[in-house]
Amino acid sequence: MISDAGDEDLGPEGVSGEDFGRHRLPRGLTLRALVPNAITSAALCCGLTGIRFAIGGDFRSAVMAIIFAGMLDGIDGRVARLMKAQSRFGAELDSLSDAISFGVAPALVLYLWSLQQMPRFGWFAALALAVCCALRLARFNARIDMEEQPHKSAGYLTGVPAPAGAGLAFLPIYLWIASGREEFRHPVVVAVWAALIAFMMISNMATPGWSSFRPRRTIRLELIALIGLVFAALLTEPWLTLVGICALYLLLIPVGVVRYAALRRQRGALPGGSAQA
């Protein structure tokens, strides 16, 4: 439930680090804050359950559990905003949940699935994924109260978001399950891919956000139909559909970089504009 606004229910640490001990601790969360925080907690449990499935060798269920955690993570913030229940507590809980569900859990799943075949190099690749996810979330939290966020003001994100990063990191598993070919499980391939996704999460490139998509009115009905077909495909051929979604997202990244660069040039050309915007 990370939000740029909403500072209700702040504890002493939410007010100021110097105010610790000067204010009473809040008696508890407001009733309306329970729902979005419960959703975040459920996402965390899904991520941890994915680790349990991976330890038992059920990698399909492990991946599905973490994907479900991503779906829950996608709605908890929106529920908080609809219920006007944003809080610093919710933002911190969301970040901790994301670090485990989309950093630690995918790293362990990939390690148990493939990377343990070369323990040293494979473990470093898994560590890179988990650490970079935590660094990305720390950077996001540090910028919550910043007024100047050029990427955000244009509807873009900075780097690949944590849930999308976890989904992309699982691409070799999707291909392995869909095709049955062991080449996709080769530890060198998986390690290089995990390291690449880790770098993309902490990179400074502009990646597409939901607010950057503004489909024309003439194609909105077709878009609704397409989304329905995608969900139907996920039910019938989930692994191939996930491969297609990953491929589409990867194609959108360079498009987003180019479009943001053009937008930045336009802003710089406006009177009083800045090329750094």
TrEMBL record:
<dbReference type="Pfam" id="PF08009">
    <property type="entry name" value="CDP-OH_P_tran_2"/>
</dbReference>
<dbReference type="InterPro" id="IPR043130">
    <property type="entry name" value="CDP-OH_PTrfase_TM_dom"/>
</dbReference>
<keyword id="KW-0594">Phospholipid biosynthesis</keyword>
<feature type="transmembrane region" description="Helical">
    <location>
        <begin position="219"/>
        <end position="236"/>
    </location>
</feature>
<feature type="domain" description="CDP-alcohol phosphatidyltransferase C-terminal">
    <location>
        <begin position="220"/>
        <end position="254"/>
    </location>
</feature>
<feature type="transmembrane region" description="Helical">
    <location>
        <begin position="189"/>
        <end position="207"/>
    </location>
</feature>
<feature type="compositionally biased region" description="Acidic residues">
    <location>
        <begin position="1"/>
        <end position="11"/>
    </location>
</feature>
<dbReference type="InterPro" id="IPR048254">
    <property type="entry name" value="CDP_ALCOHOL_P_TRANSF_CS"/>
</dbReference>
<keyword id="KW-0472">Membrane</keyword>
<feature type="transmembrane region" description="Helical">
    <location>
        <begin position="242"/>
        <end position="262"/>
    </location>
</feature>
<feature type="transmembrane region" description="Helical">
    <location>
        <begin position="154"/>
        <end position="177"/>
    </location>
</feature>
<feature type="transmembrane region" description="Helical">
    <location>
        <begin position="34"/>
        <end position="53"/>
    </location>
</feature>
<protein>
    <submittedName>
        <fullName>CDP-diacylglycerol--serine O-phosphatidyltransferase</fullName>
    </submittedName>
</protein>
<comment type="similarity">
    <text>Belongs to the CDP-alcohol phosphatidyltransferase class-I family.</text>
</comment>
<keyword id="KW-1133">Transmembrane helix</keyword>
<dbReference type="Pfam" id="PF01066">
    <property type="entry name" value="CDP-OH_P_transf"/>
</dbReference>
<keyword id="KW-0444">Lipid biosynthesis</keyword>
<keyword id="KW-0812">Transmembrane</keyword>
<keyword id="KW-1208">Phospholipid metabolism</keyword>
<feature type="region of interest" description="Disordered">
    <location>
        <begin position="1"/>
        <end position="21"/>
    </location>
</feature>
<feature type="transmembrane region" description="Helical">
    <location>
        <begin position="121"/>
        <end position="142"/>
    </location>
</feature>
<dbReference type="InterPro" id="IPR012616">
    <property type="entry name" value="CDP-OH_P_trans_C"/>
</dbReference>
<keyword id="KW-0808">Transferase</keyword>
<dbReference type="InterPro" id="IPR000462">
    <property type="entry name" value="CDP-OH_P_trans"/>
</dbReference>
<dbReference type="InterPro" id="IPR050324">
    <property type="entry name" value="CDP-alcohol_PTase-I"/>
</dbReference>
<keyword id="KW-0443">Lipid metabolism</keyword>
